[in-house]
Amino acid sequence: MCTQAGSAVPTVMIRNERVLVTEWRFKNRGDNTGWHRHAHDYVVVPQFDGALEIDLGDGQRIMAEMTRGVPYYREIGVEHDVINANDFECAFVEIELLEDRPG
Q1: What is the pTM of this model?
Q2: Distance from the first to the final alpha carbon of the chain
Q3: How many domains does the chain have?
Q4: % pLDDT > 90, the chain
Q5: Within 13 A of 67's CA, how many CA atoms are on the CB side?
Q6: In what order do the strands lie in the sheet with 72-74?
Q7: For the segment 41-60, what is each residue's pLDDT rounded down to a tens digit?
Q8: In 10 A of CB 60, how many CB atoms?
Q9: Is residue 2 part of a domain?
Q10: Which distant-in-sequence residues (6+ apart) come within 8 Å of 50 by Cβ?
């Protein structure tokens, strides 16, 4: 859920009562998602080998190495802006877990 628009392009691939699957595409170095807080647990699947710069706020920035096809999981509440740190176009697929399976 973005609270400030960035320059990366989000494309919703699946949206239903249980999951929201979005491809985030960064065409150029410096493209970003915009500052946001995650309202759900989520999984990210990078579609490239490279790095993303993560702005954590208050001047804190980290580099996160990505490996194509290797997913990672984060819990609800993460706040950040994700920035392309590569000299090439890159993308990742974000899978937000909206609710638990009934039963």
Answers
A1: 0.91
A2: 27
A3: 1
A4: 89
A5: 3
A6: 9-15, 19-26, 90-97, 41-46, 72-74
A7: 999 999 999 999 999 998 99
A8: 9
A9: no
A10: 65, 66, 85, 86, 88, 90
